[in-house]
Amino acid sequence: MALSYKARKRLSLLILLVGMPIYVVIAVNLIDSIDRLPIWAEVPAYIVLGVAWILPFRSVFLGIGQVDPDAPVERPVDRQE
């Protein structure tokens, strides 16, 4: 089932405002729970976790910054003077 542009926009906002902060807390706690992880291994782990959250949601975020494709096209009014 394909989501409409408006539904994808609302879902992406929900993911960014609610889901991402929750994911950040989980990711930091996950890295923190691994004992004796050297600093040189933490940086790639944070990079991988920073990219991994978006992979399941790439279809939701695709094209959100563009103009609504379902919106009616407004044409300029020709004025005669």
Automatic annotation (TrEMBL):
InterPro entries the record matches: DUF2842 (IPR021265)
Keyword tags: Membrane, Transmembrane, Transmembrane helix
Top-rank taxon, per record: Bacteria
Residues spanning the membrane: 12-31, 37-55
Originating species: Cypionkella sinensis
Name listed for the protein in its UniProt record: DUF2842 domain-containing protein
Pfam family, one: DUF2842
